[in-house]
Amino acid sequence: MAQIKNYRDLIVWQKAIDLVVKVYQLTEQFPRSEQYGLSSQMRRCSVSIPSNIAEGSRRGSRKDYCHFLNIAFGSGAELETQLDIAKRLPNTSNLKYSEIDSLLDEVMRIMNTIISKLKIS
After folding, report:
1. Interior CA angle at 10 toward 20 and 116, to 5°?
2. Does 19 reside within a domain?
3. pLDDT, tens digit, 9 for 90 and up, residues 38-74
4. Residue 49: which of 4, 96, 10 has the closest Cα?
5. 60 in the Ramachandran plot: left (φ > 0), alpha (ψ -120 to 50) or beta?
6. Is 18 contained in some domain?
7. How many CB atoms lie within 10 A of CB 101?
8. How many domains is the chain built from?
9. How many CB atoms lie within 10 A of CB 20?
10. How far apart are CA 78 and CA 64, in angstroms?
11. 17 within some domain
């Protein structure tokens, strides 16, 4: 695997940034009562995904990169759970989740593939 020169060139990072934007757009539609609850938590963990991808790619070793990708993967699982909760709540169940769900799924699949390849190499 070639050394990564810039995390901004990574498709997974770019898609994770798109995911953050979608999460912010979605949570803007949440009721004000969720501003410091679910909305804030979803925003924080979505930001954690590209942040950890970037940090890991700059650490310089495969082991560190894999470690930070695993943290990002965990944040993705948190976001999946929070989306499931939002879909069940009366004030947020009627929002459109399909685009964010498919983007999160894609980011998670890409990260899983990278993690698997890093562990094999």
Report:
1. 100
2. no
3. 999 999 999 999 999 999 999 888 999 999 999 999 9
4. 10
5. left
6. no
7. 15
8. 1
9. 17
10. 21
11. no
Can you give the pLDDT at residue 119?
86
Residue 108: domain span: 25-120
Closest-CA residue to 26 (of 87, 73, 109, 88) = 87
CB contact set of 109 (below 8 Å; sequence gap of 6+): none
Structure tokens at 94: 């009627």
Q: How far apart are CA 118 and CA 121, in angstroms?
A: 5
Give the integer Cα–Cα distance in Å for 67 and 69.
5
Predicted confidence at residue 3, as pLDDT, reads: 57
pTM: 0.92
Burial 56-94 (b: 16+ CB within 10 A, else e): bbeeeeeeebbbbbebbbebbebbeebbeebeeeeebee
CA-atom Rg of the chain in angstroms: 15
The answer to whether residue 14 sits within a structural domain is no
Using CA atoms, how far apart are residues 100 and 46, in angstroms rounded to an integer? 11
- In sequence order, what DSSP letters do the residues of 21-67 get, joined into one string? HHHHHHHTTS-GGGTTTHHHHHHHHHHHHHHHHHHHHHSSSHHHHHH
